[in-house]
Design brief:
Number of domains: 2
Strand content: 15-25%
Helix content: 25-40%
Order of helices and strands: EHHHEHEEHHEEEH
Distance between the termini: 29 Å
């Protein structure tokens, strides 16, 4: 079972970013989708997203209790009680949580909290509005280009009809990106970029 030390994961993010993102193993795949949040709790929520995205539903989360606020522990256990079955064990000042996420309960939790956060009426997408794109003549920065070549993000390319009425579609550099939005939540993302490798990677990163 995959074991994750939350504090060490956050601490080592910047140091090991490229090495971790290059990982091809199942246990490392979630790192392609995870970034730290503005605080430890948001980092934990982002971690849940990354694990579910890579279909890792069984794992052990280790939390070092020293210098960890009780509020963080309470919030983590509160979330886990809504989306999973978990067992807690404390030894040598480290709390281990053996977690098994229910994908259905996790999705219901996301929908519920998105709706609560927004507290606005459902609105139809206004496809008459346009997004202005700022175009520049300068090519992508060579240093940035060199770094993105080292990383292989999830590919959202698709040959499906992106003009489907259920999609919000936007032209970009002669290609198209599409978002499927239901109940004010982005459910799926697509693009049809198959030639411009740099642009394709940047869109994949963005998605």
């Amino acid at each position: 079972m995959l074991e994750i030390n939350l504090k060490k994961l956050i601490k080592s993010y910047d140091q090991n970013l490229l090495d971790n993102l290059r990982g091809f193993g199942k246990d490392d795949e979630f790192l392609k989708f995870w970034v730290p949040g503005t605080n430890d709790f948001q980092s934990f929520l982002n971690l849940l997203d990354a694990l579910v995205e890579t279909k890792i539903l069984d794992f052990t989360l280790k939390i070092e209790l020293k210098d960890t606020k009780s509020e963080l522990i309470e919030n983590i256990e509160k979330i886990l009680s809504q989306i999973s079955n978990f067992k807690k064990n404390i030894e040598n000042n480290i709390m281990s949580l053996e977690i098994k996420i229910s994908k259905l309960e996790y999705k219901e939790y996301l929908v519920k909290n998105k709706n609560q956060d927004r507290q606005i009426k459902k609105q139809e997408i206004d496809k008459t509005k346009k997004v202005k794109l700022l175009k520049i003549n300068q090519l992508i920065n060579p240093i940035y280009k060199k770094n993105i070549e080292k990383v292989n993000p999830k590919d959202y390319f698709s040959n499906i009809n992106l003009e489907n009425e259920k999609f919000y579609v936007q032209d970009i550099e002669g290609s198209k990106i599409a978002l499927k939005i239901e109940n004010q939540i982005i459910e799926k993302l697509f693009h049809n970029i198959d030639k411009n490798v740099d642009l394709k990677k940047l869109i994949n990163f963005f998605f």
